[in-house]
Amino acid sequence: MSQARNHDLYRHRVAGAVLPVLPVLPVLIVFLIVLVDLLGGAGTIWLPLLAAGPALAAATNGPRGVLWVGLLAAGLGAALGIGDDAPGPELLAVLAALTAVTLASALAAGLRSRRERVLAAVRSVAEAAQQALLKPVPATVGPFEVAVRYSAAAAEARIGGDLYALLPTPYGVRLIVGDVRGKGLPAVGTAALVLGVFREAAYDEPDLLAVVDRIERSLARNLGADDFVTAVVAGYPRPGQLEMVNCGHAPPLLMRAAGSITAVETPHPAPPLGLRALTDQTPSLQVLPFADGDQLLLYTDGVIEARDRDREFYPLVDGLARHLCDEPARTLGAIHEELLAHVGGRLHDDAALLLIRKPAGAAVEATSVPRPASPGLLLGDQTG
Fold first, then answer.
1. Distance CA 52, CA 29 (A)
2. pLDDT band for position 12 (50/70/90)?
3. In this structure, is the dihedral angle defined by the CA atoms of residues 258, 342, 330 and 128, taken in order, positive or negative?
4. Which contacts (CB < 8 Å, 24+ apart) does range 58-62 have?
5. pTM
């Protein structure tokens, strides 16, 4: 009785070791070929097709799974060949080919598994880099409700050349949204440089233009002649007032509580960051009234330049009008889904969206350091 129980236990352990690695679809294909051979009675004609089992297993399983499928195919092939009285040399040739395909497939499966492990490690590093570069933005920062959506064109990389940051400072909440020229690792490095300088300068500089100047000086020292960054830098220094500096970037969209949507065009265009030395234009400070219920959307070119199959751009203003509500996360979620549907599921450029909303009755973040008044253009009822 004890010997029988031990035999059953051993059998269950073997089955438990085999079944988890035995691919279902390749095994079904092997049995289908066996069934066709049995019904057709065509000798060894169908037996070479048994190699499809381990070949397919290499695409879905590791080496162990491939070897188990190859062993199953070889055993069934030998049994069928013997049952069909196949000539010995012909059957040996079939089994030798099946063995060679199995071993080659097992090697391919091993290499694929290794590449998958490397890719998983790279993705883990990319996620860590994204967390360090594009730090998560909380749902509430100072007096604002905030939402962010970011999609890298290289989905496997998780990060790209678009950048954003929003943080409370002694001079009120400050934020930046930018787009680095180019793609790949150089663009990521430039984005990291801009964000690092912004986070330091936003805390140190009382004036928003001084923050932009710090970023410009850093980029002038570190960028190549053809590199630049378009960006919008904004701040909320006092209740009801929003400051903004636009350096060659797409105009933000201002949504009033009454429902109007307006593009905030800069009256004095400034060059992108890193190119100021090539022109005599300098950034100007805009001052916007920003009351309870108002919202501001900042975005990158990847949003408004996304095209559908008919080469039509995504209509961001129309999409915003359709989906705007009092919950920034819900608004951006709907716009992001519509944007992906517009392009057919895959963006061809990095795309970032940052939406802030001033809810009614929100507590205003105190300014702990005296701040000198900055000259600027007041937007609201401006005439030019």
1. 8
2. very low
3. negative
4. 58/105, 58/106, 58/108, 58/109, 58/112, 59/109, 59/112, 60/23, 60/25, 60/26, 61/21, 61/23, 61/26, 61/109, 62/21, 62/109, 62/110, 62/113
5. 0.68
What pLDDT, in 10s, does the model give residues 88-103? 777 788 788 888 888 8
How is residue 1 written in tokens?
């009785």
How far is residue 64 CA from its own chain's centroid?
A: 33
**Which residues lie below 8 Å from residue 289, measured CB to CB, with a gap of 6+?**
240, 241, 242, 378, 379, 380
Q: Could you give the CA distance from residue 192 to residue 159 in angstroms, rounded to a whole number? A: 11
Q: What are the tokens at 167?
A: 């943080």
**Are 339 and 314 contacting, i.e. CB atoms less than 8 angstroms apart?**
yes
CA 364 to chain centre: 33
pLDDT for 364 equals 45
Instruction: Give the C-alpha separation, 84 to 43, whole Å.
Output: 5
Phi-psi region of 182 (alpha: psi -120 to 50; beta: other; left: phi over 0): left
- Asked if residue 2 lies in contact with residue 44, where contact means CB atoms within 8 angstroms, the answer is no
Give the tens place of pLDDT for each residue, 106-165: 888 888 888 888 877 766 666 666 666 778 889 999 999 999 998 876 655 556 678 999
Residue 371 has pLDDT above 70, yes or no: no
Distances in whole angstroms, Cα of residue 47 to Cα of each of 32, 51, 55, 66, 91? 11, 8, 14, 18, 9
Q: Is 348 helix (H, G, I), strand (E, B) or coil?
A: coil
Of the candidates 280, 264, 243, the one whose C-alpha atom is nearest the C-alpha of residue 374 is 243
